[in-house]
Write a structure and sequence with these properties.
The complex is a heterodimer of chains A (402) and B (458). Chain A has 402 residues and is of the alpha/beta class. Chain A is built from 18 helices and 12 strands. Chain B is α/β, with parallel strands linked by helices and 458 residues long. Chain B is 49% helix and 14% strand. The chains are: A alpha/beta (402), B alpha/beta (458).
Amino acid sequence: MVAVIFYFQVHQPFRLRRDYRFFDIGANHFYEDLEANEGILNKVAEKSYLPTNNLLLELIDRYDGKFKVSFSISGVVLEQFEKYNPQVLESFQQLARTGCVEFINETYYHSLSFLFSRKEFKEQVLAHKKKIKDLFGQTPTTFRNTELIYNNDIAEFIEKMGYKTILAEGANQVLGWRSPNYLYQPIGCYKLNLLLKNFKLSDDIAFRFSNTDWDDFPLRAEKFAGWLHSINGNGEVINLFMDYETFGEHQWKDTGIFEFMRALPYEVLKHPDYEFLMPKEASQHYTPLAKIDVPYFISWADVERDLTAWLGNPLQDSAIEMIYSMENAIKSSKDLDLIHTWRKLLTSDHFYYMCTKWFSDGDVHKYFNPYDTPYDAFLIYSNVMNDLMETIKKRGLLKKAI
Amino acid sequence: MEYCRGDQNDRNVKIKFDNSKVHPMKVLMFGWEFPPFISGGLGTACHGITNGLLHNNVELSFVMPTKRGKELNTSLNIIAADEVPHIEKYQQAVRNTNKTEFLELDSVFSISPYYTSETYREFWHHFQQVIESKNLLEEYHGVLQFTGNYGSDLMDEVNRYGFVGELLGTIEDFDIIHAHDWLTYIAGVAAKRSSGKPLVIHVHATEFDRSGENTNQQVYDIERYGMENADRIIAVSYYTKNIIVNRYGIDPDKVDVVHNAVNKHRNLDQLTIKSHFNEKIVLFLGRVTMQKGPDYFIEAAYQVYKKIKNVRFVMAGSGDMLPRMILRMSTLRMLDRFHFTGFLQGLDVERMYAMSDLYVMPSVSEPFGIAPFEALLYDVPIIISRQSGVAEVLKNAIKIDFWDVNKMADWMIKLLEDENLAKSVVEASQQDLETVGWDSAGFKIKEIYESVINNSKI
C-alpha cells in the first residue's frame, strides 16, 4: 500500500501596529494592530478556512473515513479564532470529531525558540499540547517545528519529550539521491520516525496550481492522482505538506482549487493500493527505511530551505537576540499577561518581515509582509521591544533576572 | 565703495527709510519652496528672508512653481508659476486671430535666447496690445504644469520655470530680481534679460554640499551660469562663499555673506514635554544623507554607548542613507538604546528637541544649517561640525571636524556627564544667537539691493 498524507499548516501572527512610533516608547503598551488582525483573520476565514473545512467534512463523510488529513494550528491563530471568529474553531472541532483528522503539536507561538532557548521551546510545545487537548480532545504524538525547521538536535529533543513522529522538509541537501517517499528515522533516534515533505508534488498544488506558464497547467485531479500512482512500487508514503491558506487564499476559488480537492480523493482511491493516512498512522504502519543525518538546520522556506528567511541579516539577528535576552526578566515577573505579550513577539513572522533577500523569494515575502520595507518592520519591532524593556525596567525585573 | 559704518551710515538709513515710504523698493523674488510646501531648509529660509525684508519696508512678489491651488497664509504677493498664463497659448491665440501680425512675433520668439531687453520689451508691449484688443485673456487661460517637487522631470521644470521668469520679467513691476538656489537661477537670469533689471542670487547650498565630489554637471553648470550672470551674490556663510570663489571661480568681491536666522519662538513649553526615558537623549535631526554625516554620528554614538549606560540616541529624519544607517546600528547591536523616528514635522520636531539633552550636527558640508538654532530654543547644548556655516555664527558652540569621531564621542560624554558645562554651552550659544535675526538679515539684504541698484544706474 502507498499512503498519501496531507498536512496543513494554519497560522496567523499577531501583527504589530504600523504606527507604533518612537514617541510611544514608555507611554503606550498597545502593540497590536487589532483592526488588521481581525480583518485578515475574517477575510482568510471566509475565503479559505471555512469553505475548505466544509469541503473536508464533506469528503470525510463521502469516503466513509477513508479520506484523512492532519493539521498544525498555531496557538496564536487559535487564540484569534476564539477572539474574532469562533465559527472557524467550531468547524475545526467538528473535523476533530470525525476521527479522520490529526492535530499536530508545534510551538504555541510559532516561534524560533528551539534556536535560542530550549527552556522556552519546551514550555511552548507543552502549552500548545495542552491547547490541542483542551480544544480538540487529542493528545498529540506528532511534532512539527515552526515552518518545518529541523535538524538532528530538534529530533533528539523531541524524542526525549515522548513524541513518535516528526515532520520535516524533504530538502535536496538532506536527501541527496534518496526519495522522500519513505518513512525515515532521525540519526541518533530510536523511537521517533521522520516524515519528509515531497516538495515537488506539494508545491505543484501550493505554488504552481494556477501558474499559466507551467507546462502542466491546468492541473486536474486525475492528472495529479496519476503522478501519485506512478510512485507505486517506489515509495510508501507521499507527504503533501502545505499552508492551509493554499485553498481559497493563495490559490483563489476561481482557479478551481476547490474542485481539484473535491475530486482528488476519488481519483487517488481509484487505485486499490492507495490510501490516505494521518502521520501518526503512517508512523505505525511502516518501518523506517534508513537513518537520516541533518546536522544543519533546514526549513520549508524559500528556495534555500534554510533559516535565511528569518535570520542572518543584522536587523533580524539583533532583534531576535534582544527579545530572547529578556526571557529571564520577563518570566521572573510571573505575570502571565506580560509573559504572553513577550511571547507573541517571538512569533517567527516578525523576523520574516525583516528579511532583506528580495531576490528569488522577494515576491512571496512581499505578499505576506504588512510593511513597505524590512527596515520599517525592524523599526516598529524595536520600538515595541524597547517599550517592553522599559516596562520590565520600571518593574525592577531586570536587576532580579541578572 | 561700500557704506561705511558710523553717523553717516545712520543718516543714510533714515533717508532711505523716508524714501521707502514714498516709493518702497519692489523685488521680484524666485523661490522653489515656501511654507507649507517645504521639503528642506530652503522654504523655511525663504520664509524668514521675506519676512525680514517686509519688516524693512521692501515690497515683494514671491514666485514659486506651484501652490497647488491653495491660498498661502502670508501677506506676501505670491505668484504661482503654474497659474501664469502660458505663452504658447497666447501664441496660438494670436495665430488663430491674426496670422500676418503674428509672423513677425514668432520670429522674435524663435531667437529668444539672443534678444536684447529692448527688443523684447518692445515685442511684449506690442504683443500684449494685440491680446488685450482681441480680449483673449479669459478664453485662453492655459498654464504650464509644475509639481514643485524634486522629481525625475526636475530639469524640465527648472527650464519651464525659466520661461515663466522671462514672462514675469516683462509684465511685473519691480526694481530688482532675487533668486534662491540653482532651481531658480535660470528664471532669475531670464527675468533680468527680459526686464533689464539687476539680479541678485542667493546661494543656500551648492552642488558640492549636496553631492560631495560626485557633482551633477548639469546642476553645476546652471549654478555657475547663475553666478556669472548675477550682479551680486549672497552666500549664507563664509563657508559657502569660499566654495563659490574656489569651485566656481567667482570674484570674491561680488559675494556678500548674510547669515540665516531662526524664528525665535517655540510652540511647546519645554516643561509640558516629558521624556519617557530615564536616560539622556542625544539627537541627530536632519536628512539622513551623505552631506549630513549620519554615519559619523553612529560611529561616535557607538563609542559613547559602550562607555556610558545612561544615554539613548535618536536619529530623526529620512533620506537615502537611512537603510544603511539602520543596518549599521543593528550590526553594532545598539537597538536597545538607539532609535530612528523617520521623518518628523511640525510639533513632533519641537517635541523631539524638547526631549533631547544634546544635539549633534556632524555635517560633512553644510552651507548654513538652521537646526542648531532650533535646538538652542529648547536649551539643548549643541555640537556642530566645523564644516558648517552656522559655526561662523555660533562662536561658543562645541565644534568638531565631522570626521573626528573620537573627539565627537569625547564631547558627547563630557556634555552628558557635566551638566554645568552643558548649561554654559547653551547659555553662551544663546548669546551668540541674540545677534542674529531675520530682520537684521533683511536689513543687510536691503542694503545689498540698494548698492546693486545704485551701481547699475551708474
